Amino acid sequence: MARVIRWLLPHPILTLLLVVVWVILQNEVSAGMVVFGVFLGIVIPRVTSVWWPETPTGFHLSKMVSYGCIVIWDIIVANIQVAWIVLTVPNSKLRPAWIIVPLELRQPEAITMLAGTITLTPGTVSADLSSEGNSLLVHVLHTDDPDAVRDDIMTRYQSRLKEIFS
């Protein structure tokens, strides 16, 4: 029985997330929407499970919640900072930079979360992952100190993701 459930729900958290997102996107809670959300929540992870050879082990959901709050806060602050830069800094005085962020993360899910977090935060974008998987190339819209940006990414995001995926 457990084997059947594991086959049907290869990623139960993803299934639950898909159901919740579906119902929220429909802006209506009805039996039909929930049933269709459950259908999608079962079918999508099942169909894509061939690209997920292993599920992450040691994932700490409670730490992920606090990480999510930090990321949301950083996105809000970065939106204000980017708006200020766009409105007050002439193009000739912008100091964009390419930054190499060394990775201590090894799990593909953790690296993807870090790259996604960087890209979601206005003013920064993850541009490339090294072929060895040991560094990320990040572009920053404007900075006076690229090393400080790199250190901030490493301490604010990467260290927390190491705890989440430990």
Summarize the entry for a quick read.
The protein is mainly alpha-helical. The protein has 6 helices and 3 strands. Helix content is 60%, strand content 11%.
Give structural notes.
This protein has helices at 2-8, 12-26, 31-48, 61-88, 108-120, 146-164; strands at 97-102, 124-129, 135-140. The two termini are 29 Å apart. The chain is 60% helix and 11% strand. It is globular. It has a three-stranded antiparallel sheet with strand order 1-3-2. The protein is built from six helices and three strands; from the N terminus they run ααααβαββα. The protein has 166 residues and is mainly alpha-helical.
Strands, helices and their partners?
Elements: H1 2-8, H2 12-26, H3 31-48, H4 61-88, E1 97-102, H5 108-120, E2 124-129, E3 135-140, H6 146-164
Antiparallel strand pairs: 1-3, 2-3
Average pLDDT figure: 90
Find the count of extended strands (DSSP E, 2+ residues): 3
Q: How far is the first residue's CA from the last residue's CA?
A: 29 Å
Strand order of the largest sheet: 1-3-2
Helicity range: 55-70%
Q: How many helices?
A: 6
- Class inferred from helices and paired strands: mainly alpha
User: Which range does the strand content fall in?
Assistant: 5-15%
Unreliable stretches (pLDDT < 50, length at least 5) are none
Shape descriptor reads globular
Q: Biggest β-sheet: count, sense, barrel?
A: 3 strands, antiparallel
What is the N-to-C order of secondary-structure elements (H for helix, E for strand)? HHHHEHEEH
The value of Rg in angstroms is 19 Å
